[in-house]
Amino acid sequence: MTVDDGEGRERNGVTRSVAFERADVDASANTTVTATAVDARGQTATATRTLGSREAPRLLSAEFVNGPVDSYHERIDAGRYTAHHVTKVDLNGTDPETVKVRQIPGSPDDVLRVSQKKRVVDGNTLTVHTYWAAYKPGDNPHYTITTRLDVERAASASRVVNDDFEVEPSKPELRLRMLNDGTDGVDMTERIEIDASGSFDPDGSDLTYTWKMGANPHPDDNSTAYLSYWDAGKLVLEDEQDQVTTQTWSALRGFVPEIDDSKTDVWPVYHETGTTPTMYPISSQPYSSAQTLRVRVRTEPIHFRRETSSVSVGAELDGSAGEIVRWNEVPYTPIETRPGDAVGGRNSVYYEGVIELEAAALASEDLRPTLTLYNEEQPDFAREQYDLPTVRVQSLNETRHEDLEVSDVSYAIERPVTERMTVEDRERLQRLRSYGFTVVSASSRVTGYEMERREKVRDAEYETSKRLFDRRWQRRLFIDENDGWGVSGTETTRHREPRTETEWRSARGEDYTGETRRVLVSPARYLTERQYRYWTTETYEREVESRQCLWGGHCYTVTRTEERTRRVSKTYWSLSARSSSHSPTGRTRQHKIRSAEYETQYEHRYTTWETVTERRYEATKRELVSPAVYEWRDYRTVADSQTAWRLAKADDIRIGAERRKPTWEVLREGTKTVERPAYEDAGNVTSTHATVTGTTVRYTTQDGEVRRRVVGPFETEFSGAGVVNEESILREVREEED
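Now predict its structure.
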């Protein structure tokens, strides 16, 4: 902020001014300014002035502007469940960037914000739009949103206002599908299966299906019924809040044929000036993201009982910027005809269509556009959705605008007139010149300098890649050989594995396998004796004969008994030696004292579950995808060149432009252009203007997968020469995007 000294003295045409930074001044408090002047002789003069505080921003209103609304459900129109909250703030001259408006839901688990906050500054008023929804009505259908107003660097307290929105129970949403028995085509001469299982209650409650008139419910599934070709059916759908939806239909009014996937083809289209589009086979993949493709689809054939019978099927494309370039009914010649059928007549038809769109729209498996077929007799109830096929595209990294809508269309119309006027506003001058005015004379004077500061408008974007390894050394080896990769952590997973085991039991049970065995329960018991040897002396008798002779030569034999001793060895069997001098001979013998015991056992098999823990080691790499973006933006305005050049010495500040007070005298002869919402003669329309809104979406390719991220709302002003219809406006906006 620049504060000029309103009481500064002016001598010899020189005025002194003092500049203040906005961050140094609190607009809600009194500020004292002191100025001291020193002349060449050292004399000083001081002046002090107190600047009064500016009134703080005032909260004018904070309330919901619509309601009651339905409960949130992603399959119903957003306008039904969105509660629009509007907050208006009187800025009282305060910088709107310092004013913070926050909305806090009283029940965060039950309330969600369905769109981004929108801030609009109109003069001295700040308007904040927020959009809310609740998941279900609940016992208390009122949900409170608290609005809090804060001002940066302000001494005043915050202002808080509460308001609530009401959520009403929603009626059940009825969704019908007519099915055949899976044969080629749909035979209207047989009964038709009506499937209402796709119906739902946005409040999340269960539904009750009641079939009436000619509809016969399926005995196992009450959400399905059968209907004869000639009969009318009626379904009454009731939820747990006693909300009822009723629909009456016939087979012809409620039938939608299915797409025959085998007849679906994709062709690239190459447009050349003055020629018809050229199409080549799908084998030319991968395509560039901007390549125009045509998808040809065909429904299953429909066979009618009578020549006068017919069904009207329409088609629309959802989730893509493409268009259906052809959709028509084609006579079908069945292979086998029935009595009374005219081959190739109106009683056998199918529908065929061609959709034209860019390859990027078909690049992702999860983000494919859908083709919706509906019965024109009941377009809200009889609908079938089909995902278009996917194609391979080259690396995708772009921002696109989707869900475009045109509003506020006006036309510039020329009228004969001669005008002369004086203009002091450059924007108005440019506008007048575009209307045919020419400048007769021009003059201007410098009133200030526009300073610009270099500011970052978008942060750098990084992408993190991840690799998992079974062993720690594998991760270390990978990190050592690949720059930029680092250790991130571990990833632990647990799962259960079955283990089958067998067990032998004494009695048979449920898990008996049929196998048996005989096992020893108690072994036989034996007593072991050892043989010991010892030495002893024994006495024995021995007869000894001797010969004796008498005098005279007579001899005789004499026998006598002698007692002698000898050392003998003896053995005995015993559990232990009877004496320490007895030694074992090494021989043993056993005596059985108890026999062995046996029993019969039975094999059983059982399964147990074991928890297995697996650990993997993670390495990550952070790569720069998009660098930060800087722009020169308006910073402040100064009155004199000296201050401007002093500020421009900083690296991030420059002089953007001189502020001049221009005056132009302009003249227009011949025509005058006026803006009108309609025109009578297209020859008088010079240009068409409109507002185009939609959603900005970012597409990127990662690991062969197309990622889609919603950036935010998109809005642009369109201007085109002559009369431009809505279809051409959307086409030109998309071409500017490319």
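Residues 726-737 form the longest helix (12 residues).
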